[in-house]
Amino acid sequence: LQCPEPTPSGLVEELLGTGTQPGALREPVCPSGYVSQADFVCVEGEFRLRLLDGTLSDTEPACIPTPYEPEIHFFRLTHCARMDYGWRIKEIQIYADRECTEEILDGGASPVTIRGEGPPAYPSANGIDFTSDLLRDSDMDTAFWSKCLNCNPYTLDETHGGAVMVDFTTQFADAGSANHDIQCVKVTAKATDDSGDHALKQYFPCCAKLFRGWNRVDDFASSGMIDPSGFTEVWSLDYNDTYHSTVPGYTLSSDSGDAACDTSLSESCSSVARFVSICGEPDLHILAELITIEPVVPSACHCKQLCIDNIAIGCSSWRYRTSNGECHLQRERTCPVEEGSESEPSGTWIAGTTGLRITSIQPERAPVGSFALTLIGVNFPTANDLYEATTPDRQRMKLVAADDPAACAEADVPSSVHGIGCATPMICAPKPLSFSSTSVVFDGISVDRMSLDVEYRICYSMGHTYDRYEWHEAAQRLVVPGTGYVWSTTAAVTAASTHLTLKIERPAFSDYTDASRWQLRLLPAGQSCSSVQDGASNIELAQGNTVVQRNAASVSNTLDSATWTNIPLVDGGHTRVADRYQICFKNGVGAFVRLPSKDERLELEIAEPAPLSHEQAVFLSQRFSGRTGTTLTMNVKGYDLDDGFDSHRVSFISSKQRLSQAPDWGLGESETDGSCGTPMPGDFSFDPTEYTVDSRTSEALTFSVPIPTDAIPGQYDVCLCTSNCDGFTGSSQRNRIPPPASRVRKTAWHADYQEYNCEDRCDGGCVGETCYCEAWGVAPTNALTAAQEWFQNNRATVQGTADERAQFMCAPPRLCAEAARMTTGVSGVAILAEYNLCVLAAAGGNPPVAAKGWSVVVPARPSQRLGDLTVSRRPFVDGNWVLDPEAVSSIEVVGEMMNATSDRIMLISCDGVCGLSQPVQEAVMAEDSTDVTRCCDWKPPNRDVETANAVEFFNEWTAVPPAAVPELPAAVVPYVYNEQKSRYCPGNDINVSESIVSQHRCFHKCGQSSCVGDDCFCDGYLVGHDDSSSNSLCLDRQRCLDACSAMGDDCYGVDMEKNSNRCFLNGPVCRRHVFFVENDRLHPDYHYDFWYRRDDSLQPAEAGRRRALLEVQDAGASWDQILRFPQLAFRTAGSFKVCFCDHETLSSDSGCTSHRDYLIDVGTAHVSGVSCLVEKRQFHRGVCCPQYWGGFRCYARECPSVQVPGFVV
Asked: What's the pLDDT band for 22 if we cut at 50, 70, 90?
């Protein structure tokens, strides 16, 4: 009989096979952790289960749990601190007890087996080997020497190439005895040299780590700690750390016995590290739904690994019975963790979890635009979990390029990733959007797409982001699909380009959209491709907008490409909209996406031409801003500007004057047609004898412009004469000189300059700085520069015949230009500036010829307009703001006569130009997370915004009187405290916001307010971590203990930071679980010590406590000296330019309605925290002042003072 097609049931996921005739077979596919014990066979019209012995069954399951086969122990020993003499390890030994007294041997020999060839060893010397075989030879007189001497886990350079890692397993002659319960691993290393004095040498690290993994056949654990296939557990030891109350964890001992090393006796000593290699927590129960019981496993670590292996079927926690090896696999815990039961002896049970393990990510392929990335797994930190070592909102994630070889803690987020910003590689934002024990979600992420698929590594930290070993790499990779489309330009795009030709193309047969329906947008870098609504038609860049669609320029199509020509890059006023563009494309369906170029560039940059390939010129459309009464440093950019002339000039013509004949600078009347010719009366210009160019390179001229105190605020045309403005300009030809027949001889020179003829001036032995005879006495040398090469080859000509000598003038460029201007019949001057040598070119002469190092300068043309200068008298323009990317922050602009109703700010990219660039999208209003790219929405709090009633407004914003932080209350019971080093009590922080010590919270005292003085203890304030929800206190240790004592039974202990005045108070849960302290169940943290109360001893209360006073506080409003812009949040870290809109400088009364109105550059916002700012050299001697609504404003010398008014107006 034929059998009907069977369907999977129970644990069977799929049935493999075909046919329904009698005898047809189906092979069951079982889930992970299960194996098949039978197949299905067609018998008498139905498929029945046939067991391995051939019998048929209707009751047995097809899938049974995989028979347990314990893995072999696999260990990795490494270090987390540098060594400068290498690691010299004598022996690695394993023990069956946590005290390291019962050594495990195999027939008297060590079962420790080094994996593979072992770590690189120091070369043999004098017949002595230092190989890894010596790690297990049971001989303390021999030692393995690491190949590296400068062994640093941080890869710095070729002499610090990473950490030493020793991988080893345990192998026994009798395979059945291989799975011991290894409870202690001891590592002995040299600690003294072999000299007669046995001087101490650090042949061992101050911090060591031991990882436990698994070894099955030829397969080993991966290197990850959050990967289900990674290590089982990790233990850490610090030198002089005590891991167990009766066993020294990491100490120095004498080689002559077990006594401690006495360095005064000049004896040989060793470092001894004892790792208590037990997984889980003894005497604890984790109550959860039971999955299964494995009757016998060798150790608690085997039980934990078995649970990790069964995560796919729901295992999250485990319990191990030490008396019989029983392993209970359980689901996620649903009840609180409890202490050991009184009905069973202490040590009967050990319990734990798998630890955090990431099993998958969603999505696996990044979609177009912004998306949320979800990490899925088990045992993510939760808010109510006593045993987790961090809080869930401290979790962090970053994406790193797959081909970046750096470890997660050192790798940078690439520029193609948006929405994730890191002040340093280990301090990143944002915080999670949501979290649970099985997942964590990070949103607002977007990744630029390349032409082909690109993979990114996922780096994750549970929250201790400052610890490099708490950053882990997930096994999964995020794939960003390629666009399939690329763009290219047909010619180089430079600062002189006014139009652009772009070609979009795709591989043949990659998709079939009609190229005639393709659309194109050019947006300034930093904007979103979707920022302009789809369907906008005929919007041209030449009209000042930032969009070009297909009908804004000529388009030609082929089957797989489209080419746009004559795309305008400048507006009607010849102002370039941006220096960097992104190419946004739509293939007729879906949304606009950002395209890469053929060579995988994400932006089209306006390049600066090579200096020698173009005539000397400055870039147009440059923007400058300054404040009255200050000196403005102007960097005029261009190319080929370093021509040797030193009298470049700049002048300014008021834009208002050009339009309405208003007085220029307020210094007098003038009339002008608006061109940049000879400065008119009233123009403010450089005095050539007083204000010459400060510095000069081929790319920039730097001027110092003192802006008069009484200059009229507004906009000015900047007019520049680019070379010697006494008559000859910088339209020079490089490496050219007039031929001899076209040079003017000295007899035709103006009489005032004939004395500078080289023959007359220098043959007589002129001495002094004003002789300018550098060229006349130069002997031939090897060619070092172009000028020296020319002079070496032509010295005989310069000092040749009388006619030849009469051609050369020994004078600086300035005098050469004056001589040319004053001499009749001269068309130009050629100079060899390095030697103060020049010749005058005769009018009507032959064209210049090649001559290395020379420059020919022709008569001056009128000064050219190179851009605009905006002058304001109100905001200070030297601001720097330090803002926390994870907290709500603010910007305070300090100045004079400012107006909170009319003045605004806007944030642009750091390389943008105020008045040209669009606002960034990274800045948002924290209240509703709305986009503030609409510049006119960004305004300070003021009377019109807060209330329409002036009286109520004045009452609300009147300055408050000075306030003081209250003294700590005297403790009712003064307690004695004991210390546990490098530990803290997790999950029990007291909420101090409403307590008697709330005024000493770091965020309140040192962040929101500005406590000053040594007794403020603000060195404990962490800008990147502390916020309004933080319970950290900024007090020294004694005051932290006093604060705990003052809270009575509500406080049991203090987590005290080792290197700063920072602490957390712990609640009574730690007191109830006294075994946490006595049995060392506290969490390790090498930055903190735990101080806990002794109730059996009292000490007299300390008398005379000091007080910490706060400065006078204002009400947080704006007034004419300071504008406050609060509720500022950032989607990512970075630096942003702050542009100010001063309504006084605008040519109309329209107000701050366009990004073109924000003309004043008032400084830079550093969204990265203080730790990043201190790396900037200019602030090493500066000062930062806290802002009322969060963040800091910083200055090179001191913070400007402001006077809080009695009323806010």
From this structure: very high
